[in-house]
Design goal:
The structure is a single chain. This protein has 286 residues and is an all-alpha fold. The protein has two domains: 59 residues; 217 residues, Orthogonal Bundle (MetI-like fold), CATH 1.10.3720. 73% of the residues lie in helices and 0% in strands. The chain has 15 helices and no strands. α4 packs across α8 and α5 crosses α8.
Length: 286
Amino acid sequence: MKPQKKYVDHKLHLYRAVAYTVMFLLSFLCLFFFYILIDNATHNNFDIQKGFQLLPGGSFLTNLKNTMNDANVPVLSGLRNSLIVAGCSAALSCYFSALTAYAIYAYDFKFKNAAFTIILLIMTMPMQVSALGFLRLMDNMHLTNTLWPLILPSIAAPTVFFFMKQYMDSSLPKELIEAARIDGSGEFHTFNVIILPILKPAVAVQAIFSFVGSWNNYFTPALIISDAKWKTVPILIAQLRGADFLKFDMGKVYMMIALAILPVIMVYLILSKYIVRGIALGSVKG
């Protein structure tokens, strides 16, 4: 028995060593590219063109100053616009998707399954399919060169809805809703005061994903916005990269990208504790 137990313990230690090695390599690969970004942001254009340098350079403040003072690339207004769009999109998509999922989950009505299926079918349709019609509609409504076309469509977020619905199926007892109704609680009061706090892990997870998706969105803003004061960060980065050879500065490009990822990292650090919990609790029951 003892040799067999010793063999099992040795096998378990070997599996753990392999798992830790793989996790270390994956973590290194993920963090290394962030280091390359920050490292290149500290070098000037000439140093970057010579190739990757392991140690940071001394041009961080110069690149920051050049990026901030570039009249063709309004960095501060771009960050402001992206924060408004990403923050509002995350809030609207999470709230209204949770509200829609609550209606599908808590009520029994005719064509309930059909409504759920239609929402899932919408989730499979890429934005590019409806882009031309969307652009013409916004132009007819005189909403081009505004942030509204980037914010309002987030109210209908099928992916967020699906995650919220799966979370409710696995973690929200219907008896709680019935008890609230018996106590005289209204439907919106029940959702806002009782149900929404229970959904906090799922809301936090989807808020991160929605924020990052809106923050990194280039396709829709590029269609809608041409006025410099309403441009978002991805458009400004593309504008820097698309400069002619004489004005192209890799130091400014890397600095702009470094500034662009800071809000995303901050949002992730604030809400990251909910990711594993939310995904685990929102999984489908077996």
